[in-house]
Design a protein that fits this description.
- This protein has 70 residues and is mainly beta.
- 9% of the residues lie in helices and 50% in strands.
- Strands 1-2-3-5-4 form a 5-stranded mixed β-barrel.
- β4 and β5 form a beta hairpin.
- The termini are far apart.
Length: 70
Amino acid sequence: YMNQFSRTELLIGKEGIVLESIDNLNSTGKVKVNGELWSAISDSKIEKGETIKVLSVNGVKLKVEKWKEK
């Protein structure tokens, strides 16, 4: 059994995909991580279809950034 806190902590550092462009000005942004849909925020606009990395969990929103290729 895992509570909500520990489950969301596991998402940090994970890769995901943008399903709705992330744009803080318009308060839009949806990503799919580990097969789950989340609302997302980011410091920069990230287009639909881009790959993202989860930086932190803020309540029911994920703070993400564009995935940087190694």
